[in-house]
Specification:
The complex is a heterodimer. By secondary structure, chain A is an all-beta fold. Chain A is built from no helices and 9 strands. The model of chain A has no long low-confidence stretch (mean pLDDT 92). Classes of the chains: A mainly beta, B mainly beta.
């Protein structure tokens, strides 16, 4: 099974960019990289996904390394509402959530 | 468009009883997945249904079962409840379940087993 490695926690200041890293050295050629986040007392929420090229949407950007063994989720201007646990997932046949990265945003 | 709804939101059961949880996916979504979330194990995949058929199954004992109806609504059942089954049970729906796809999660059902 393809697995991901993320830092347990990160801190950011409000209105500053945040780069959340994810290592996935055993990724296969057909694995999509997905990011979800879970705000306190809520179910996970889709953030972004990509295969090979960098991706942007209204919530975030996803930068994928050329060898696809790592990726970075970029929040361009962190707000207090972005405080959540962020999960990087390689979908095999199901969604295997790891421990994720707990992001704290300081005002 | 209404989101994924789960009922009930909170439930207290006694060890040995059984429980049925319900999930209504977003209109038009045909895939429904179930997850268990606990502080110790995090989010774990239970099973996925697509067009009334179980397509994938996680590593849970046979006490955990589910089904999907023709309108895509899904139920999961846990028989002979154990204290360790206390958890937040999350349901997620997606259009087809064909990669790549976004899953939309409901708010969950908080099950407490005493």
């Amino acid at each position: 099974d393809a697995k991901t490695t993320q830092p347990n926690s990160m801190e950011s200041n409000e209105e500053e960019p945040v780069h959340l890293p994810c290592n996935h050295s055993t990724i296969s050629g057909t694995d999509y990289i997905h990011w979800y986040r879970q705000l306190p007392s809520q179910g996970p929420e889709y953030v972004i996904h990509g295969l090979t090229s960098n991706v942007n949407n209204r919530m975030a950007s996803l930068a994928i390394a050329e060898d696809r063994k790592s990726s970075t989720l970029i929040l361009h201007r962190a707000t207090l509402r972005d405080a959540a646990v962020y999960y990087c997932i390689l979908r095999d046949y199901d969604m295997r959530f790891g421990a994720g990265t707990r992001l704290t945003v300081k005002p | 468009k209404a989101g994924v709804t789960q009922t009930p939101r909170y439930l207290i059961k006694t060890r040995g009883q059984q429980v049925t949880l319900s999930c209504s996916p977003i209109s038009g979504h045909r895939s429904v997945s179930w997850y268990q979330q606990t502080p110790g194990q995090g989010l774990q995949f239970l099973f996925e249904y697509f067009s009334e058929t179980q397509r994938n199954k996680g590593n849970f004992p046979g006490r955990f079962s589910g089904r999907q109806f023709s309108n895509s609504r899904s139920e999961m059942n846990v028989s002979t409840l154990e204290l360790g089954d206390s958890a937040l049970y999350l349901c997620a729906s997606s259009l087809s379940g064909t990669e790549p796809y976004e899953q939309y999660f409901g708010p969950g059902t908080r099950l407490t087993v005493t």
